[in-house]
Amino acid sequence: MAAPHLAGVVALIKSIHKNWSPAAIKSAIMTTADRLDLDSKPITDDYDRTREPAGLFAIGAGQVNPQATIDPGLIYNIMTSNYIQYLCGLGYSDKNVSVIVDRQIKCADIDNISAEDLNYPSITVTLDPNVTKTVTRQLTNVVISGAEVYNAVVEEPKGASVVVTPNKLGFGGLGMKKKFTVEFKITDGSMSKDQESEGQLLWRSPKHEVRSPVSVTFA
Known about the structure:
Elements: H1 2-16, H2 22-31, E1 44-45, E2 52-53, H3 56-59, H4 66-69, E3 74-75, H5 80-89, H6 94-101, E4 123-127, E5 133-141, E6 148-155, E7 160-165, E8 168-171, E9 177-186, E10 196-204, E11 209-218
Parallel strand pairs: 4-11
Antiparallel strand pairs: 1-2, 3-5, 5-9, 6-8, 6-10, 7-9, 10-11
């Protein structure tokens, strides 16, 4: 039943924010989702009947909060040109990308981006020992009135450090955009190859909380 419920939430958002892109709508749904259930307890994974807290790959961003999606504060937007950069960065041929976007594309003439740098509302990286990895994200203000200042609050994945730069962002007018970087580095050499660790990045203002799930896989 998740699909029809989400379709209804999308229709609700679109009725209020008629000019929002699909990516903006998805961002609003993901960044306002709840990590806890209605009893304020961690959402559990019922698949194997253990009732253990569910991981990111089971619950995604969390439980959708329809009311919060209407006023997310900030969104991670993605334009068509960004998807083209992403496809080229994945190594698709000019012919394949051209077929997908229905126009002629030359990846050599485009600033390609890695999958990790696509402006998605969550962050997933693979970390090699002794290597620092940095990803970039851009936030867009969707609050009609009033300036807000957001502070970054990080829940670091076990075994990795996370540094957000800058760790404070100020937004004034509607549509204002601000970029930031997130730097990852392994801090625990005992983490095994292909082990996964989870955390979160929260941008918090007095009125809004914009949450991004963070996943790290150790190489």
